[in-house]
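Hi L.,

As promised, Lysoplasmalogenase:
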Amino acid sequence: MKNIFIKLFWLDAVIELLSPLLFASYPEVRLVSKPLLLILLMGHIAMENPRPALFFTAIFALLGDVFLMLPGDSPLYFQLGLGSFLIMQVSYIRLFAKQASDEAWVPVFARKPLAGVLIYVFSFLAFLNPYLAGGMKIPVTLYAFALGSMLYFAIRLRNQTIVLGAFFFVVSDSVLAFGKFYYSFLGISSVVMSTYIVAQLLLISALCKLQLKK
């Protein structure tokens, strides 16, 4: 019973990833399977960790998922989704920072990943910039730095599961941005969702375990 939400999460993840093949004639299946992913993880949080901060993070992840899946090409939906995920990333950063002890902070260790993260963020933004509409430049730039900061603070925490989750999150969002603003390739949705699913599961399950120790 303890892991029921994780088991249901994996079942829903399979349905979500295979829905373009299994339910091609019923696209509305994803209207249920996609938001259900975070709802199930919120159930796992409630069972494992009643502290509100992680639940708050998951709520904004859920809102981001919902806004980005709304039908239509309205830029407002994307902006609302981006804003929700921005709040989620800031919340993750706060959680990682609170978990990091003074003993875990090693300045020499921290400089190299910080430089690497900054190089990636600046390079990716320089690549995307010519393809961004004027109204999207500032929101995308803010989100890119929040995403990079999340990865950096995950590395600083030096928890292997959290670092891996943060890495998958960066991959997912980078591929999503690449497809939306530059070029969308066959199977891009599967790449985005599979890495996103793994990222959220790793981050939330690891944070639940870490917070239980304190």
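The mean pLDDT is 90.

Thanks again for sending the construct details.

K.
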